[in-house]
Amino acid sequence: MRQKGISSNIRPLKPLDAASETHWNTPLRADAFDLSDDEKIEQIEKHVREIMLTLGLDLTDDSLNGTPKRVAKMYVKEVFSGLNPKNRPHARLFENKYNYDQMLVEKDITFYSHCEHHLVPIYGRAHVAYFSGGKVIGLSKINRIVQYYAKRPQVQERLTVQIGKELEAILETKDVGVVIDANHMCVAMRGVGDTNSKTGTAYFNGKFKDENVKREFLNFINS
Fold first, then answer.
1. Is 90 a catalytic residue?
2. Catalytic residue among 43, 95, 118, 162
């Protein structure tokens, strides 16, 4: 249960114009997908092994000898799988034949990501809303879009914008709102060691710039 409601005073991230769109893309090299997944796993396994050996761990121990490969597979196939565009969700749209013209909210979408500064977990909840511009999206696809962009090294601000921009493109509407509240292990388990703080970000565009609409969305989240 959420301890505190999300305030309508949360500072939203501004929608980006065409000239600045590159800033919300995950920074990737041009040759990012020259290697196959299997080749990446092989190389990462070698590097993880070297890190563990450098730390002084005995990789002949039966508890440790499989760790380099497990970590490599986890990185490529699971927690960073959102880096690969082949894993991008294919969203199925439906005609809004019900003429539903009110806000649709999908809240409390659990996600797990990784801070790109320390590669430790970020986890929390995403809340997504939109007004139909003539099409509606299957509810599970909203969850999959959140998971796709979460499964990569991230900063929360970029994650928030990526989800919002993706939904705008798919639904062909600017009337999209996204709020994320998350825990950052880079704050909790290292550095300042604060286990209680959370980080909130928001993306409001179209009708969601209206204070009454924004308040309605936040009331849905907090209900």
1. no
2. 118
Exposed/middle/buried for residue 90 (C-beta within 10 Å: 0-12, 13-18, 19+):
exposed
pLDDT at residue 3, as a whole number = 44
Residue 13 pLDDT: 52
Q: What one-character DSSP code corresponds to residue 202? A: E
Active site residue 115: yes
Q: Which one is catalytic: 43, 47, 117, 172?
A: 117
Q: Is 118 in the active site? A: yes
Can you read off the two tokens belonging to residue 45?
Answer: 């396994």
Stated pTM of the model: 0.89
Q: In the chain, list all ranges with CATH 3.30.1130.10.
A: 90-222
Catalytic, out of 45, 156, 166, 168: 156
pLDDT tens string 6-30: 654 554 555 544 444 557 899 999 9
Domain 90-222 falls in which CATH fold? GTP Cyclohydrolase I, domain 2 (3.30.1130)
23 is catalytic: no
The CATH homologous superfamily to which domain 37-79 belongs is: GTP cyclohydrolase I, N-terminal domain (1.10.286.10)
* 117 flagged as catalytic: yes
CA 1 to each of CA 8, 48, 223: distance values in angstroms, whole numbers, following the listed order: 19, 38, 11
Catalytically annotated residue among 114, 166, 184, 216: 184
Nearest to 176 by CA among 139, 131, 125, 221: 131
In the structure encoding, which two tokens stand for residue 126, read together? Answer: 């995403």
